[in-house]
Amino acid sequence: MTMYVFVGPTVLLEDAQKTLDATYLPPAAQGDVHCVALERPYAIGIVDGYFQRMPSVWHKEILWAMAQGIRVYGSASMGALRAAELAPFGMVGVGWVFEAFHSGVLEDDDEVAIAHAADEHDYRPASEAMVNIRCTLNRAAQERIIGERTAELLTRIAKALYYPERSYPRLLADGEAHGLDARDLRSLCDWLPSGAVNQKRNDALAMLRLMKSHAEECRPPLEVRYSFEHTAAWEAARISSRQGRSGAAKPAYDCSDHDVAVIDELKLSGTFGRACRAATTRALALELARQVDRRMEGAVLHEAIVEFRRERGLEQDEAFERWLEAQEIASLDFFKDEALVQMVSRMYEQQALRLLPDQLRATGEYGRLLDRARSKERALTSLGSGHLPRELDDAELVAWYFQRHLRRRVPEDLSLYLHELGVASLADFVSTLTREYHYACSLEGKSSPEGK
Questions:
Q1: Residues 6+ apart with CB under 8 A from 73
Q2: Is 227 in the same domain as 260?
Q3: Cβ neighbourhood burial of 121 (10 Å; 0-12, 13-18, 19+)
Q4: Does residue 332 belong to any structural domain of this protein?
Q5: pLDDT, tens digit (0-9, with 9 covering 90-100), for 214-255
Q6: Among 347, 372, 391, residue at a domain's last position
Q7: Cα–Cα distance between 34 and 233 in angstroms, integer?
Q8: For the chain, what is the total number of helices (H) and then of strands (E)?
């Protein structure tokens, strides 16, 4: 099962990987959960996230992910904060930090915030989290390393510090400056190397163990009780989330080397712009299908694949296998998306026809086609009954159109071809072809045109 986990300074990557087989990502920023949710993983875990350097992970992107059936877990740091807020909606919170925020014992974000190094230095912590200090001092008091009064005063001193300045050496120095019991401070200093509590790390590992347990149990996709609202603010954030942190386009998945090579060839072919516009239409169709929560599974997916093969003349298994290999398609994900695109195309077929003239105007084709239609009408009007070319029967007319006019073979399934054109019947098609045939004859000045 595919799982993504956002981690940073809270737990070492190697420790996380030993606990759970997942894809580990840097601390979550706004839009990151939405981007990985587009991949439809089984679960997403949030441990670390950004607070100040960049916008924090948004509640609504987590709600959207859960509405897609994705299980979302949180603990230790930013994950604990979001889980405490979204637990009523289905987000799973794990650990002491989560429980403290969920119950209202803790409320301030600075309780879990720390200063840390950049990713190239493995997010090495440069300060101590307040929740860790609280748990450490509580444990020290319980083990009678220090008195309860000293623990209480040190907790107040630590809380008063700006979060990047919190550390045990600073805490001991400030405790001495405040005149706290010297014997308690010495005992605490000696005890800290072995006794300090890293509650955030403990909570993070507990979350990873729970995710592993749920995955092994093969728990079904999450079912939520709320209706996700696609507000204007959400749509704006969703679109902006597809931009990387540097502002560059951020794909939902990484292109393979073959994909890159194919796109380079496409650019050289001169059809790159047209293909990109078609891909944009595909993206919008998939997004719409996901908004209405339409999925392709079971018998519905099977029927879609059968239709896909029939449309492309791939009914024979051997031909279909060769085609799959040539297109480098190794999973059902392609066909699930293709089926959704076709579903949306059928939903918007009439609206697309209404907008087709404007699309032709945008590409500059409308004027050329209009001139041809007017020329055809004038030519057919001027033809007298005595000047009509030799009549062709229906089969001859269809053969002329495909073989001589289009320079291609007659489709094996002519009814399917007409359906794709939106032509109601063979009689209507023949009527249109008759006009085209007479027009071609008038242009060439002979009774049996060879085509164009």
A1: 43, 44, 45, 46, 79, 83, 91, 92, 93, 94, 207, 210, 211
A2: no
A3: exposed
A4: yes
A5: 999 988 888 888 888 766 666 666 666 655 444 333 444 455
A6: 347
A7: 14
A8: 21, 5
Residue with tokens 């009814």: 415
Q: Are residues 90 and 220 in the same domain?
A: yes
Helix (H, G, I), strand (E, B) or coil at 45: strand
CA distance readout (Å), 297 to 234, 322, 442: 28, 24, 54
- pLDDT score of 251: 42
Same domain, 317 and 393: no
Do 186 and 303 fall within a single domain?
no
First to last CA, the chain: 56
Give the amino acid at 426. L
Q: Tell me the C-alpha distance between 274 and 362, whole Å.
A: 13
Distance CA 175, CA 181 (A): 8
Q: Fill in the amino acid letter for 26.
A: P
Q: Which tokens belong to 213?
A: 């347990």
Instruction: Determine the angle formed by the axes of helices 426-444 and 414-421, rounding to 10 degrees.
Output: 80
Kindly report, residue by residue over 68-122, the tens digit of the pLDDT.
899 999 999 999 999 999 999 999 999 999 999 999 999 888 899 888 877 777 7
Q: What is the spatial distance between Cα 204 and Cα 251, in angstroms, rounded to a whole number?
A: 28
pLDDT tens digits, 287-298? 777 666 556 667
H/E segment holding residue 24: strand 23-25
CA distance 211 to 24: 13
Helix 96-103 and helix 199-216, axial crossing angle in degrees, nearest 10: 100
